[in-house]
Amino acid sequence: MWRKTQVLVVSRLSPMASKRSCLLLCLLLTLTPLAVPKASNRGIRLELTHVDARGGLTGPGLVRRAAERGHRRVNGLLAAVAPSPAASLRSDEQEGASATAAVHASTATYLVDLAIGTPPLPLTAVLDTGSDLIWTQCDAPCRRCFPQPSPLYAPARSATYDSVPCGAALCEAVPSPRSRCPPAAETGCAYYFSYGDGSSTDGVLATETFTLGSGAAFRGVAFGCGTDNLGGTDNSSGLVGMGRGPLSLASQLGVARFSYCFTPFNDTATASPLLLGSSATLSPAAKSTPFVPSPAGPRRSSYYYLSLEGITVGDTLLPIDPAVFQLTASGRGGLIIDSGTTFTALEERAFVVLARAVAARVARPLASGAHLGLSLCFAAPEGRGPEAVDVPRLVLHFDGADMELPRGSVVVEDRAAGVACLGMVSARGMSVLGSMQQQNMHVLYDLESSVLSFEPANCGEL
């Protein structure tokens, strides 16, 4: 792949010509994209779009689709850290209910708009805090590409595309790259990523200029140029990893922190802000809890683990063995905070205790939530809607910080069926704090201090 090279020729010029040349050179320098890392001292705002914003789904269909995505998502997260036949998400969607939404291969919840290359080509990608690699489908040529809303990115049409050779530091950051590199290490750095839900991307690692927000351009960002891709990414062209590894967007831009504020998941029309660098700030009243060090090994180090120490329902601290939420050296257990899972998934032993406590305090007849993919639902009082179901206070106790969840972050209501359901599910192998429980909460990832902070917010007005 040849690259365009700019050559500056210096010759003897008149004073006026010299002045014009100096001004032209300064202008060119100001237009040149910065090299990564370089976003730590500048603030960038991006808008996140809910994946169902263009799908026309409302009510039960929206909830069902979120539950199905969550099922695949959690199972994919489990498979990445601790492959085991026993590792799985459990919910009523496994009972084969007749009312179903279309099943998609992707587990996306939020999408982000950006641009790649020179000239910039706009594209939409999945935002994923549970993985590192940035990738998009590439016409280089593309052997297998799933349908996407925008034209395929073609490296040959960009002046800033550059391949990453085997043996380069960036190639070493790809999990198990050596198996795809010949001994001579003169060819490109090949990669293969599978996401546990049947989707995958296969191609070469390269670098490119990425344009974010209102036009901030960042040169030399490593990404996967996928030419053999299976599955799909829900009306998008690829994925932007925001995990803890070296290939994530956050790591490559060198940002000290980033934050997001998810609008309610049933409000698919309102965008959610994603703030990078200095624009990510909270008030002094925010609560903070440290990240738990990730276990060693490929993919495991991408996750943001938190120490969940207990759960309160009403005024009662539930009798849950703290070991249920502990992260083991092998990567099993623990709790991660995730952008791609809608409904929080709790380790089964904890979920059973929680469900019994909630049911005892609600004191309403149980109802089927199979059509929603949720397992604990209550019938609304006669002649009244699901908002009349009185749900107890629920608090998640993290190391050094309590997260009290408002009703809207706990209950999913189906007015047509007259039921109110707990917006949480059961899992085996690990626990995941989902985006519904984070909605209308400004959540900040302090990467330098390895701390997560949060505070209530009206995300639609942030």
Characterization of this structure:
With 462 residues, the chain is α+β, with helices and mostly antiparallel strands. 14% of the residues lie in helices and 31% in strands. The chain has five helices and 29 strands. The chain has helices at 15-31, 59-81, 169-172, 249-253, 348-362; strands at residues 34-35, 44-50, 88-90, 110-116, 121-128, 135-137, 162-163, 190-194, 200-212, 216-230, 238-241, 257-261, 272-276, 287-292, 305-306, 308-313, 316-317, 335-337, 344-347, 366-367, 377-379, 394-398, 401-405, 411-414, 419-422, 424-428, 431-433, 441-446, 451-456. The strands form four sheets. It has a six-stranded mixed barrel with strand order 4-5-11-6-10-9. Strands 17-16-22-23 form a four-stranded antiparallel sheet, covered by helices on one side. Strands 20-21-25-24 form a four-stranded antiparallel sheet, sandwiched between helices. Strand 24 and strand 25 form a beta hairpin. The longest helix has 23 residues, at 59-81.
Number of helices: 5
Q: Number of DSSP strands?
A: 29
Order of strands across the main sheet: 4-5-11-6-10-9
Based on CA inertia axes, which overall geometry fits?
globular
Terminal-residue CA separation: 44 Å
In short:
This protein has 462 residues and is of the alpha+beta class. It has 5 helices and 29 strands.
